[in-house]
Structure formats: C-alpha cells, structure tokens
Design goal:
Layout: E1 2-7, E2 14-19, E3 22-28, H1 30-33, H2 43-53, E4 62-65, H3 69-83, H4 88-102, H5 105-117, H6 123-126, E5 127-129, H7 132-141, E6 148-154, E7 161-169, E8 172-180, H8 185-195, H9 204-210, H10 219-225, E9 227-229, E10 235-237, H11 253-258, H12 272-300, E11 304-308, H13 315-324, E12 329-332, H14 341-353, H15 377-386, E13 392-393, H16 396-408, E14 413-416, E15 430-434, H17 441-449, E16 459-463, H18 467-470, E17 482-485, H19 496-499, E18 523-529, H20 535-548, E19 552-557, H21 569-578, E20 583-586, E21 589-592
C-alpha cells in the first residue's frame, strides 16, 4: 500500500511517502526550490519521494491532503459574519483567492497531479482529505514508540481547532476536546512575534531565543487583559486587542497602548521592551502548556504524551514540561509544523481509514528524521567537478580525522552527509559545526556565516552517552526539541560586574566550559547523538572528544539567514563560497575555502529575503 501525504498552499509545503505503514521518504519543497517556506504544490518533493521508493506515480494507491479547505472557508466566512462590518477589508482581500483557488482545492490538487504525474490517472478517485489537527495528531502518535498516549496539538489554527486533545490507542486516535479559533496560544505568540518586529510563521523561534535577555515584567498585564487561563489549561483571548480576525495585522492600537507604544519596526535596534515582552509571553505560553498537560493527564489517565503543531517547536516550553514530570515519557514530532502534516495525513489514512495495524519501533518511526535526499560518492564528485569545486577524496577514517582537526583549529565546518533531515532542524546531516569551547564562536557564526542577529543562540550536539555529564537531562533528545541547563560543574560563575549587565550586554559573558552553546540563562537546546541513528556524526563527535575531552559540538543549520537548509552538494558549495566558512565535508570529499578558485567567491548574504 503506497500512500502519498501532501501539505501545501499555506506555508511549508511538503510530501511524504508511506509504504505499508513505514515512512520511506519526506521532504519540504523549499529545499528544492530554494524559496524559504515555499507554499506551492510540492512537485519536486513528490518526485523525490517516488524516486526514493523506486515507484511510479501510477503505483500510488492514495494521495492525502493534510486539511479540509472547505472547513477553512467556513471559518473565514463565519468569522466575517461575527465581526461584520469590521472585518470587511480582510474578507474582501481573502475572498477572491478562496473562490479562485482554495474553495475548489480538490480540482486544484487533481489538476496539479495530472499536469505533473500523469493525465491518464483518475486522481480524483485516489484523493483524500484529512483534518488539520488530526494530521498533526497522527504525525505525533503513529511514529511514536508508545502503544497508547495522550496527544496534544497546539498551533495557530487549522480549520477551526487551535488546540486539541486526543488519545491514541493501538491504531486509533480519538479526539476528546478542542479549543477553537480565534482563541489560540499559537496566534497569541505570533502576535507578540509581530509586535517585536519579527515575521509571523518564521520569527517565533527568534522571540523564544530573545526571551532570556529580558524579565517577565508583563506576565500579569498579559493575563489580566489578553488571556484568561483556566486550571486545566483551557483559555480565552480578549479579541478587542487583536486584529487577525478582521484585518491584515495581528494587533491593534489597544495592544499598542497596553504595552507603551507601537510595534518595533523590523530590523531596527532591539530595546529592553522587546526582550521583556519576549520573556513575558514565553512564561505565559509555558504556563498554558504545563496546565494543559496536567489537565490531560488527569482527564485521560495516560502515562505518555505526544506533541505536535507549531507550538510543539517551542523547545523551552518542552523542557519545562519535561521537568514537571507530569508524564512518564514525552515524544515530540520533529516536523511539528505544517510540513509534518504530510506525514500525519498519510498515516491517518493507513491506520484510521484502512484500519491497518501499527508496527511500533523501539526508538520511533521517524528514522532520526533523516528522510530526505542523499547523494552517492560518485554523484557528489560529478556535481562538484561540474561547478568548478576543488576537493580531495579521503577514506572514512581520514574524513573524521581531518574534520575533527579542523574543528580543534577553530574552523567553521560545513557538514553534508547522508540523507537530509525532515523538519526545521539540522541534525548532523546538513549542519554547520564548530568548537563549543570558544567564547567567540557564537558571534562569529551569527555575523560572518549565518548573517543573522547576534543574540540568537546555537545548539549543542552531544554524545548520548555523555549527555547527563554535561547537561541536566536524562532522556534522549535526538530532534533538538528539549532545552535543559548546563550541568552545575560545567558552569562558570559571574562576577559582580557581570551580574549588573542587562539585555544584549550579557551576550559576551562566558557562562560555561562550552560558552558557544550556553545561552545567557545557562540553558542549551540539546541534540543527543547515538551511534545507531547517525554513526558518522557520532564518530566525528567521538573523535573531537578524544582530542579535546569535550563530547560536544556546536550544531546549526547549514544555510544563511533567509535561505532554506542546503540540500544538494551545489547548495553546500555555494554556501562555502558565499560565507566565511572555512572547510566543507561532503560525503568523502573535503574542500578548503582557501584552495578554491577566487573567481567563484560570491556575495551571499543579500541573496535571500530576510526571515
């Protein structure tokens, strides 16, 4: 049984192929088109999935779209009626698009399938639609290592649901409770993202990274005016402060007045207000998540929890939830956003509609999230030669030795190995890596390679067997979705003068033996690496440990600001030549920046639209 799952037309289009219940391949369209958050029909991602499984389009038994467009239109129309005439501007802007494209999306999808994958196939007969939050829930539960679990989905909005509670048992999922639009913890967080001058749907992680620089001074103001949180985590927003129902903006003048002035202009200097706002909405979000989890545990009696939806990418909240020990085990879908809906859509049809049994994997069914394209050594060499790259070919052992030595020498390394990751995180397949012991690495990587804001933290990759010696964590965190503190014996105390610093001034203070991955609150977003899931990356960190006694590397996504994570060897080489990267390892090819043709150096930082 070959089932293709698709998410498209909103943001983060993606495709996933499930064969007899096993996830064979999954990829986001942006990685192929090089357009960040590409929302178009995922033609290239589908082509990859079919090629990876070595099947043709006619062999697909089912194609499943990740939500129900007509229910979304119903929500748009009913929202307009509820707020009329105030929402006419937004409604008038949206209506032509819906009538032309989205309301009749079944035809749009079948037409796209015909044009790209065969006009002689009755795609309409093979097409199915899942509900948005069901797709998220299925993506969280079915690949999880749990026989049964509570499932919490939190995002901006699907059709109507913004937060949903379900229970998974064997191959079934039963929805127990939903919170509906316009009341949304995801949209509340996005409202603060927008107010702080960051882009909605891409800047939320910046707000999370900014939070430790501030103080949660506005928590009570938020809870007294914007959101009413009940003991079970359910909540209600005061919509008089928000315009996302009635206008093309997230907030309004009442919101401005509540927080002492208008929103920050994008790319302007950050002030203490933005830092305090970030800290405050982060604290409120954590309260909601923890109360929801407690309520779910009490109402369902389940001992395991699965998380999905965009809010599940808030790894700080996830870390706090883990510390509360409300559930015995927590599993988070690594592609928790809309892209992951493609996985859930396919799995929901296989298990719910077709009633096929699950085959639970001891770790999980996501294969480390290494579900994207890979390139053979011969293909890597051919592609690099074609673009004029100069490289040496080494053995596996030499690759590890030379890369580890480059890291010890302080070089920033591009690491392109094996199958590309699915989801927003680089996990040691398409990563930029560096020595975490350097107090200068964070600033240098941000400003000279990533071309992004200096305050943004970097994550550590740590050998799983050493994780508890360096961080306050005793569970696997393979998908970089949990934040924990640096171990006490690795911390460096601050002196009296350093303790008086505020805001961004805190950035330059080394707080631990691995300052490049230690955020200003002594926390880190951890990826644990084991030899079974990613043996080559594990071997590299092990070699670095042998040279330095440190089993940790800086790991950040292999891209610059506004660019999708690199996919092909050509993408990786362009990033080498367009940034201040020093060293590139692709398969068994090693490339030194200093050894390349200077004519191939490009201005890279302005090539992509800022995120």
């Amino acid at each position: 049984m070959n089932i293709l799952g698709i998410s498209a037309y909103y943001h983060d289009s993606a495709a996933c192929l499930v064969v007899d219940g096993e996830i064979i391949a999954a990829a986001q369209e942006e990685r192929f088109t090089r357009k960040k958050h590409d929302s178009e029909f995922p033609v290239q991602a589908i082509n990859f999935c079919l090629a990876e499984a070595a099947i043709r389009a006619e062999s697909l038994d089912c194609v499943v779209f990740y939500d129900k467009p007509f229910l979304k239109f119903e929500r748009l129309f009913e929202t307009y009626l509820a707020f009329a005439p105030r929402g006419f501007k937004s409604f008038a802007t949206s209506l032509p698009v819906w009538v032309k494209d989205k309301l009749f999306q079944k035809k749009t999808i079948t037409d796209a399938l015909k044009v790209n994958f065969g006009t002689d196939i009755d795609w309409g007969a093979r097409l199915r639609f899942s509900e948005h939050h069901l797709s998220h829930a299925a993506s969280a539960f079915y690949p999880s290592p749990f026989k049964d679990a509570a499932i919490l989905t939190m995002d901006g909005v699907g059709e109507w649901a913004t937060t949903s509670l379900a229970v998974g048992a064997e191959n079934t999922i039963t929805v127990h409770k939903e919170i509906h639009f316009p009341h949304s913890i995801g949209l509340l967080y996005s409202a603060f993202t927008s107010f702080a001058g960051f882009k909605v749907n891409s800047g939320e992680y910046k707000l999370m990274g900014l939070a430790p620089y501030g103080e949660p001074k506005f928590v009570e103001l938020i809870k007294d005016n914007l959101i009413d949180i009940k003991d079970d985590g359910s909540f209600h927003l005061d919509m008089s402060y928000f315009d996302y129902c009635t206008d093309l903006a997230m907030t309004n003048a009442r919101f401005d007045a509540l927080f002492g002035g208008p929103a920050r202009v994008s790319e302007s200097s950050l002030t203490q207000r933005e830092m305090d706002l970030a800290a405050s909405i982060q604290a409120v979000t954590e309260e909601v998540v923890i109360k929801l989890a407690r309520g779910i545990r009490q109402s369902t009696g389940q001992r395991n929890l699965c998380l999905a939806g965009g809010v599940a990418l808030n790894c700080v909240a996830n870390g706090k939830l883990l510390q509360e020990r409300i559930f015995d085990q927590i599993w988070i879908q690594p592609a928790s956003g809309d892209a992951g809906g493609a996985i859930g859509a396919a799995l929901s049809v296989y298990h719910l509609m077709l009633q096929q049994p699950r085959h639970i994997q001891p770790r999980d069914g996501m294969k480390g999230a290494y579900l994207g394209p890979s390139y053979s050594q011969a293909e890597i060499e051919r592609r690099l030669k074609a673009i004029g790259a100069l490289f040496s070919i080494v053995s596996d052992e030499e690759l590890i030795d030379e890369t580890a030595s480059a890291l010890v020498e302080g070089k920033a390394v591009g690491w392109h190995q094996g199958r590309m990751e699915f989801g927003p995180r680089s996990l040691g397949a398409r990563s930029i890596i560096a020595d975490p012991r350097s107090s200068q690495v964070q600033k240098q990587l941000n400003l000279k390679i990533k071309y992004r804001e200096s305050f943004r933290p970097f994550a550590p990759s740590v050998l799983r067997e050493d994780a508890s010696n360096w961080f306050d964590i005793d569970v696997d965190s393979p998908y970089m979705l949990l934040v924990a503190d640096i171990s006490h014996d690795k911390k460096l105390p601050m002196n009296d003068e350093q303790n008086t610093l505020f805001g961004i001034d805190k950035l330059n203070v080394a707080r631990s033996e691995i300052p490049a991955v230690t955020h200003i609150d002594y926390s880190a977003r951890i990826q644990t690496v084991d030899a079974e899931t990613n043996p080559k990356y594990h071997a590299l960190i092990s070699k670095f440990k042998a040279l330095t006694q440190c089993p940790v590397l800086v790991n950040t996504s292999f891209n610059v600001r506004g660019e999708p994570i690199v996919n092909t060897p050509e993408d990786a080489f362009r990033c080498l030549m367009g940034t201040e990267l020093d060293f590139l390892a692709i398969g068994n090819c090693i490339l030194h920046k200093t050894g390349q043709n200077p004519a191939l150096i490009i201005r890279y930082e302005n090539e992509f639209e800022l995120d």
